[in-house]
């Protein structure tokens, strides 16, 4: 399912360009619901791979990526906080759904639980239907905009429809460096949630107290997303600068987490991890707009997700191998913290490249300026000293 979720991202991007995000989200809702309902038939293990793995994974990809994309197109001024609020549903899911799912299994068996969940997932189609595509409006320069809000410009000047996937984004050095950030960050992201409960159990904590750490972590994650989205919206620092700070602090917290040998200390470090993880999630997708622009966001997000899967596939098995080798759960947290700090270095490099390109106009911009000056009868001489 995780494989199909990531590999389906470019496909979801292409379909969004041809069919609109609304149609792809509704298609994803049908796929996810079909996967769960077919899995409830309990036919065989290969059938589970097809239903839960392929159909559910593709459906999640088709639902998640266009939903993130359309939030970026809806909002300009409030984009960071809008995305933070939109993504906070994952945290609510983590806190509320786990006990509900357990109750469904006890009452209706696991087959009945999957059938009910599949029926609930049909609501994704309803959510997709409510995501109205932006419509082009004729621009009248004689009529001022009464609202005078940046967000209204998103509807007045929508992104032009792209008919092909922009593989050429891979030629951008800043985007390639951001993909390296994604790979290293994903290698560290998926390790702590998998190992924090076994680590707590190894310290002698009972299952209930160990599992409660995940609930607290999810709550801290929610607060982190909202807080960082609000902070990014203040524009006190650039998104890439803020991302560098929070991902580095996240790595440091994970390096220190193994010093927690009792419930209270472990809970504090897990809460810090959850909060900073939420901060990273709130801005790392929106930062793609700063790198490739809004017109390249759909393709950029698809490529970002595709290559991010490499880190997600490597990180957890590598951490498990280290734990088996060292006989200590602390090794997995050291690995996670280290790769996250390394990922922050790539964000620094991306930020410098982006700012350097903003500071100096491109050759195309210079040629256009010279052509315009020629039409106006002005000879324009451009040199390195006055190109800015």
UniProtKB/TrEMBL annotation:
Membrane topology, as annotated: Multi-pass membrane protein
Region (Disordered): 136-158
GO molecular function: monocarboxylic acid transmembrane transporter activity
Coiled coil: none
Transmembrane segments: 23-41, 47-68, 80-101, 107-131, 175-196, 208-228, 240-259, 265-289, 301-323, 329-350
Domain Major facilitator superfamily (MFS) profile span(s) in chain numbering: 1-355
Keyword Transmembrane tagged: yes
CC terms in the record's Gene Ontology section: membrane
Compartments (UniProt record): Membrane
Protein name, per record: Monocarboxylate transporter 12 isoform X2
């Amino acid at each position: 399912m995780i494989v199909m979720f990531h590999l389906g991202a470019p496909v979801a991007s292409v379909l969004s360009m041809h069919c609109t995000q609304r149609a792809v989200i509704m298609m994803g809702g049908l796929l996810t619901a079909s996967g769960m309902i077919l899995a409830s038939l309990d036919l065989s293990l290969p059938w589970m791979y097809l239903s839960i793995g392929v159909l559910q994974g593709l459906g999640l990809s088709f639902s998640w990526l266009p939903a993130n994309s359309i939030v970026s197109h809806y909002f300009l001024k409030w984009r960071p906080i809008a995305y933070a609020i939109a993504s906070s549903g994952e945290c609510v899911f983590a806190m509320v759904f786990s006990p509900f799912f357990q109750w469904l299994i006890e009452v209706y068996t696991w087959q009945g639980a999957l059938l009910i969940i599949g029926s609930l997932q049909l609501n994704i189609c309803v959510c997709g239907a409510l995501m109205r595509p932006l419509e082009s409006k004729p621009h009248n320069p004689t009529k001022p905009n009464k609202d005078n809000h940046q967000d209204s410009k998103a509807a007045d000047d929508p992104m032009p429809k792209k008919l092909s996937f922009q593989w050429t984004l891979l030629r951008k050095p800043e985007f390639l460096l951001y993909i390296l950030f994604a790979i290293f960050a994903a290698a560290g992201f998926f390790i702590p949630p998998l190992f924090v409960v076994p680590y707590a159990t190894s310290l002698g904590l009972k299952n209930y107290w160990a599992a409660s750490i995940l609930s607290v972590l999810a709550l801290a994650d929610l607060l982190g997303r909202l807080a960082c989205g609000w902070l990014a919206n203040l524009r006190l620092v650039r998104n890439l600068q803020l991302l560098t700070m929070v991902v580095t602090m996240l790595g440091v917290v994970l390096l220190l987490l193994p010093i927690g040998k009792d419930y209270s200390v472990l809970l504090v470090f897990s809460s810090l991890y959850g909060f900073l993880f939420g901060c990273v999630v709130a801005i790392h997708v929106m930062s793609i707009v700063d790198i490739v622009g809004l017109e390249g966001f759909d393709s950029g997000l698809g490529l970002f997700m595709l290559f991010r899967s490499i880190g997600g596939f490597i990180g957890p098995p590598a951490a498990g191998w280290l734990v088996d080798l060292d006989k200590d759960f602390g090794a997995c947290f050291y690995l996670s913290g280290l790769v996250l700090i390394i990922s922050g270095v790539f964000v620094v490099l991306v930020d410098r490249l982006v700012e350097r390109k903003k500071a100096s106009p491109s050759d195309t911009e210079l040629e256009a300026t010279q052509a315009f000056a020629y039409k106006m009868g002005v000879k324009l001489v451009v040199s390195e000293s006055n190109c800015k």
